[in-house]
């Protein structure tokens, strides 16, 4: 029990819940603004609707797969975990997406957007962001 508690606390301390402008600066520095034809505001809208900007966010899907981190990246397609078989297109362990450093998330998100689905790969995009005015997501962030 103590080992489990220490493990959980270690995971929690390595994760981060961002405020709105924090990921805006990080994603801009990492070249996501305009990448694949999508604005920085688009990325923020997706990240908020997928995870509320929480790098530790995990959700288990009905089909046995799981989604991870700020962009809720699918274990069945993009990263590998011990829950389900994976195509692992991003060539990474899903647990690496749960860190406060979102570099792996960004690399994988770029790979996902290069896919023919583009941003439509994210339900949060289709349901909450696509076709909407998104400038509020970067408003006041001093970019």
What is the compact description of this entry?
With 143 residues, the protein is mainly alpha-helical. The protein contains 5 helices and 3 strands; from the N terminus they run H-H-H-E-E-E-H-H. The chain has helices spanning 2-14, 21-29, 40-51, 103-114, 123-129; strands at 58-60, 66-68, 73-74.
Short descriptors:
143 residues, mainly alpha, Lysozyme, three-stranded antiparallel β-sheet
**Number of H- or I-type helical stretches:** 5
Question: Over all CA atoms, what is the radius of gyration?
Answer: 15 Å
Corresponding CATH architecture: Orthogonal Bundle
Strand content: 5-15%
Specify the CATH class.
Mainly Alpha
What's the order of the H and E elements? HHHEEEHH
| Overall pLDDT confidence | 88
| Structural class by sheet pairing and helices | mainly alpha
Helix content: 25-40%
CATH topology: Lysozyme
Number of strands: 3
Order of neighbouring strands in the sheet with most strands: 1-2-3
Q: How many separate structural domains?
A: 1
Shape descriptor reads globular
* Weakly predicted, low-confidence segments: 1-13
Quote the distance from N terminus to C terminus: 45 Å
Q: Report the biggest beta sheet as strand number plus sense, adding barrel if it closes.
A: 3 strands, antiparallel
Describe the structure.
The longest helix has 13 residues, at 2-14. The chain has helices spanning 2-14, 21-29, 40-51, 103-114, 123-129; strands spanning 58-60, 66-68, 73-74. It has 143 residues and is mainly α. Helices cover 37% and strands 6% of the residues. Strands 1-2-3 form a three-stranded antiparallel β-sheet. Strand 2 (66-68) and strand 3 form a beta hairpin. Its EC number is 3.2.1.17. Belongs to the glycosyl hydrolase 22 family. It is an enzyme of class 3 (hydrolase).
């Amino acid at each position: 029990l103590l080992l489990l508690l220490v493990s959980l606390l270690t995971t929690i301390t390595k994760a981060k819940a961002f405020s709105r402008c924090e990921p805006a600066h990080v994603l801009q520095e990492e070249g996501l603004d305009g990448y694949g034809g999508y604005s920085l505001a688009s990325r923020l809208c997706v990240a908020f609707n997928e995870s509320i900007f929480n790098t530790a966010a995990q959700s288990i899907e009905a089909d046995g797969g799981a989604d991870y981190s700020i962009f809720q990246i699918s274990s069945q397609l993009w990263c590998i975990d011990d829950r389900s078989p994976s195509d692992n297109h991003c060539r990474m362990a899903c647990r690496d997406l749960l860190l406060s450093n979102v570099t792996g998330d960004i690399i994988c998100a770029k790979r996902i957007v290069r896919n023919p689905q583009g941003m439509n790969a994210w339900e949060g995009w289709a349901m909450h962001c696509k076709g909407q005015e998104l400038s509020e997501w970067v408003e006041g962030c001093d970019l």
